[in-house]
Design a protein that fits this description.
Layout (H helix, E strand, L loop, with lengths): L19 H13 L3 H54 L3 E2 H13 L3 H13 L1 H4 L1 E2 L6 E3 L2 H7 L11 E2 L8 H13 L3 H11 L4 H14 L11 H15 L2 H12 L7
Parallel strand pairs: 1-4
Antiparallel strand pairs: 2-3
Helix pairs in contact: 3-4, 4-7, 7-8, 8-9, 8-10, 9-10, 9-11
Length: 262
């Protein structure tokens, strides 16, 4: 007998996919795996729990990172406050006072003071030092500043300054002082003067280099760190551009140089 619509074939002879064998297999599977829905549900709940833990971990990590950044910011503010206290506790260097003392020494015939004063006048005080008005710290620095106040670079890192005088560039006065120091026998001034003359009068420039070579201080520390290298570079360039006759004449003049006392 054919199975009616909505019924299951009991004999399987009709070819229906829901024959007795298929029905038997389904029923057998249900009997053999009664916990399958529970297992699936448990796995699903486990995945939800893992996802929840992952989200909580991300949130916690973000909170830790934020907390670390805030701690670092507090530490930086603390260090800055301590630095400001150290700076405020240090006595300020009066630049105008130091510059006035330099002028006094140069006027009394101190050749080293003449050289330093000449180098400051050549560029002006703004090129020597500029300071932050809020705390007096320098915002620019130079070799002249270190020599003027008698301190090394690392000693000036947290050193406040005050009373910076207005000194405008004066190349003419600077050149006169440089020549005077060179004529008085200041070897570094002789090198700096040779540098000034290199293009306009190379023979006289070589003469001053040769004079400086004769009186170069073997043990005395130079005022400007780079002067000795400059001396060697100028000598090499000048010997390369001058004729043998000019070199011989410069050497002859250098031999008879005598420092003046005025």
């Amino acid at each position: 007998m054919m199975a009616g619509k909505g019924t299951v074939c009991r004999t399987g002879v009709c070819g229906c996919p829901f024959g007795a064998a298929a029905l038997s297999d389904v029923m057998a599977e249900r009997h053999h795996n009664p916990l399958k829905p529970l297992v699936v549900g448990t796995l699903f709940m486990g995945l939800i729990a893992l996802a929840t833990l992952a989200i909580r971990g991300i949130v916690t990590l973000s909170e830790h990172q934020q907390s670390g950044e805030e701690a670092a910011l507090r530490q930086a503010k603390q260090w800055e406050a301590e630095r400001e206290r150290r700076i405020a506790a240090r006595p300020k260097i009066d630049v105008a006072k130091a510059y006035g003392e330099l002028q006094r020494k140069a006027a009394t015939g101190d050749h080293d003071a003449m050289l330093l004063l000449s180098s400051i006048l050549m560029v002006g005080m703004e090129e020597v030092i500029q300071i932050d008005p809020a705390n007096g710290l320098r915002t620019s620095s130079s070799d002249q500043l270190e020599i003027l106040v008698g301190k090394q670079f690392d000693e000036l890192l947290e050193q406040p300054f005050t009373n910076v005088p207005v000194v405008r560039p004066d190349p003419i006065a600077a050149r006169l002082l440089l020549e005077k120091a060179a004529r008085h026998g200041q070897a570094e001034a002789q090198v700096r003067l040779a540098q000034e003359l290199e293009n306009s009068d190379p023979k006289q420039a070589l003469r001053w280099i040769m004079i400086a070579d004769r009186g170069w201080p073997a043990e005395k520390r130079t005022i400007f760190f780079s002067t000795n290298d400059l001396r060697n570079e100028l000598r090499s360039r000048l010997l390369g551009k001058l004729s043998p006759e000019n070199i011989a004449e410069a050497q002859y003049q250098a031999t008879y140089f005598r420092p003046t006392q005025q």
